[in-house]
Amino acid sequence: MRRKPRIPPAPLPQRDGVDPVRVRLPPEGTWPTVRDHLVERLAAGPGVIDAMLRGGEIVGADGTPVAPDAPYEPGAFVWFHRDLPPEATVPFALDVVHRDEHIVVVDKPHFLATMPRGGHVAQTALARLRVRLGIPTLSAAHRLDRLTAGLLLFTVRPEERGAYQTLFRDRLVHKEYEAVAPYDPHVPLPRTVRSHIEKERGRIAAYEVEGAEPNSESHVELIEHRGALGRYRLTPRTGRTHQLRVHMNALGLPILGDPVYPVVTGPAAPDDFRRPLQLLARVLEFTDPVTGARHRFVSGRTLGAWSAYDDWNQQPHGSRAAPAQ
Prior knowledge:
elongated; alpha+beta
């Protein structure tokens, strides 16, 4: 069995709560210089890598800038900070509901991504918290979709992160979600939905594979209804991408404000924060694997389509919703 290479600690500090990019040079390669490999691998545009090397912005494991003509060193690591993409500021509070020496639990707003990915880097819960709390080692133990609001668990100590991630992997965390969706008296509830969900890279929507062995399970309950709208409690037993959204749509009850299910709509402007997806991670409950304490956290947020439908239902963003009657 080939052992994984030991990764040295990053020689560069975080910038705006974002880690530097780490690149490992392949063990096999015929590039004469580090520069030649980075130009081919990163496709950063004409002259970008050369300018970064001249400016000392790419460094080795000891923090020393890589020279423009540095010879290729198989298996070595280099680091650099990428230019952050322009991002619209998400104008909603990220509330800390619990903090101790091991974990931080927050109540995330809609439209804020959990961690850096794609065009969302500094405007993420992780980057914001690292800067705000002064904890550069903070890491996410799990993830919520950018459009979903609610409870998120972060770990403080890198050596303990695996223990908390294992809770989610082994389904030892009790999670409850709340959603607002159309009410249909002909849909029998409560019920458990099981299906096989696939999510392909580069494809926006996940989809169900008919006849395949189920890999997802959600329990759906109607809490109350008001005219054409219902408020639902959703309890996932598994954690497939978009699982609750897919299952609610399969029931004919697509969650309000969903820009993907049942139909993928055109992308909204980056600063369009109207009609958020009406899905909230309401409850997070688990036994702490480090301290043994029993934790139960409850989100203090409300779903706008239920509390104030007319305010929520501004100019369309995402899918259309049936008005409350």
